[in-house]
Amino acid sequence: MPDTAPYDALLLVSFGGPEGPDDVVPFLENVTRGRGIPPERLKEVGAHYFQFGGVSPINGQCRDLIAALRQDFADTGVKLPIYWGNRNWTPFLADTLAEMEADGVRRALAVFTSAYSSYSGCRQYREDLAAALAKSGTAIQIDKIRPYFNDPGFVEPMADAVAAAVAGLPEPARIGPRLVFVTHSLPRDYAETSGPGGGAYVAQHLEVARLVAEGVSRRTGLVLPHELVFCSRSGSPRTPWLEPDVNDHLREIKAQGATGVVLAPIGFVSDHMEVVYDLDVQAAETAQEIGLPIARAATVGTDPRFVGALRRLVIERAAVARGEIEGGALSGVVGRLRPFPDVCPLNCCPNPRAPLPAVAGED
Ligand SMILES: CC1=C(CCC(=O)O)c2cc3nc(cc4[nH]c(cc5[nH]c(cc1n2)c(C)c5CCC(=O)O)c(CCC(=O)O)c4C)C(CCC(=O)O)=C3C
Ligand SMILES: [Fe+2]
Q: Which residues participate in Fe-coproporphyrin III binding (predicted)?
């Protein structure tokens, strides 16, 4: 039986999303509290959710991932109970931690639904956990698994998905489409300070884009041009964010003569609102308007290779916690970047406003 000591539980930590029209405004208030998002942008984002009946797909996708992990754990003899808590909507992390403590959990391993290093996708979750411990008055010790962008179980399903999307394009677009890799935009300063030495967010995505493009060329025999672009920009228009925006980029490459595009949302682990709205509605409209055929590749979701990768990362992290191996020794990584740290170093992905307590780091 795989050894997951010293952990008593796995805690899936995610963003949360509204589950009905009445949830939309309070959810957005939770997301944007103290973040200087202009009211016009909030109205616009609210309208995206209302267009989907006020329901974000993200909570259902977390439930599906947990169900798949439970089945995988049962099949492989991993005896770790799985809990779930969110930053912005029910089940809130503080409530989940209270439940865990009542169940006797003393030491938990967190898995974030973000594969990359950034304030929003890593430290902010570490801060959320510290705040939730304080709020719930619990004393659970919480570690996290390392960033998993370069795990083969994350990269391989995406290469399959992109190859399938290429095949799904109409003739003649499928002969030589551009692979447009998409992730969430960030304020430039968040990107510059991301990861242990800075610059990790973009470096990690460029590496995944390169690996997936390579996988696609092995699968299809085509060597396709690829680039990394960004979606879902918010904040003040005066703050510089990562560019180009996916819509601007589609116009640009159409003008350069592109005949077809595969959009590959490598920044996300499931088809949540950023994917089903920002790509499937907005970018699809742009493409339609300029007459550029596009196909959107699936995210990893509950692909068994991804689920298996999370299980290996959990088993590996437990062995690291017991002092038996180093991070990366069991689960392994693909490509040119090293395994990222299991324990976030001091000042990794710093809070852009003010330092706050965070779990699972040296600080
Ligand atoms: C890097 C990153 C990820 C990926 C990593 C991860 O997954 O964690 C991510 C995921 C998500 N972002 C989400 C939703 C939103 N993000 C917003 C705002 C922001 N995101 C940011 C960054 C990221 N966000 C940033 C720098 C802001 C500006 C404000 C701030 O500094 O915090 C806003 C406010 C309105 C607006 O869009 O302006 C909303 C509603 C949802 C839920 C989707 C659903 O409901 O299905 C998910 C998974
Ligand atoms: Fe976001």
A: 56, 125
The string of DSSP codes covering 280-307 is IIIIHHHHHHHT--EEE----TT-HHHH
Under 8 Å between Cβ of 117 and 201 = yes
| Ligand 1 pocket check for 183: Cβ under 6 Å | no
Q: Which of 280, 242, 286 is nearest to 263 (CA)?
A: 280
State pLDDT tens for residues 125-153.
999 999 999 999 999 999 999 999 999 99
If one residue of 14, 120, 123 were mutated to test the ligand 1 pocket, choosing by the most ligand atoms within 8 A of its CB, it would be 120
Express each pLDDT in 65-111 by its tens digit: 999 999 999 999 999 999 999 999 999 999 999 999 999 999 999 99
Domains and their CATH numbers in the chain: 9-148+302-321 (3.40.50.1400), 152-296 (3.40.50.1400)
How many angstroms does the Cα of residue 274 sit away from the middle of ligand 1? 8
pTM (two decimals): 0.97
Q: Residue 11 in contact with residue 100, Cβ under 8 Å? A: yes
- The answer, yes or no, to whether any atom of ligand 1 lies below 6 A from the CB of 138, is no
The CA 120 to ligand 2 mean position distance, Å, reads: 8
Q: What is d(CA 36, CA 46) in angstroms, rounded to the nearest whole number?
A: 16
Atom index in ligand 1 nearest the CA of residue 352 equals: 31
| CB of residue 353 inside a 6 A radius of ligand 1 | no
Q: How far is CA 323 from the centre of its chain?
A: 28
What's 278's DSSP letter?
I
Q: How far is the CA of 359 from the centre of ligand 2 (A)?
A: 21
Is residue 37 within 6 Å of ligand 1 at its C-beta?
A: yes
Residue 56 class from Cβ within 10 Å (0-12 exposed, 13-18 middle, 19+ buried)? buried
Looking from the CA of residue 276, the nearest atom of ligand 1 is 46
276 lines ligand 1 (CB under 6 A): no
329 vs 108, 109, 200, 339, CA distance in Å? Answer: 21, 18, 21, 9
Write a three-state SS string for 56-75: CCHHHHHHHHHHHHHHHHHH
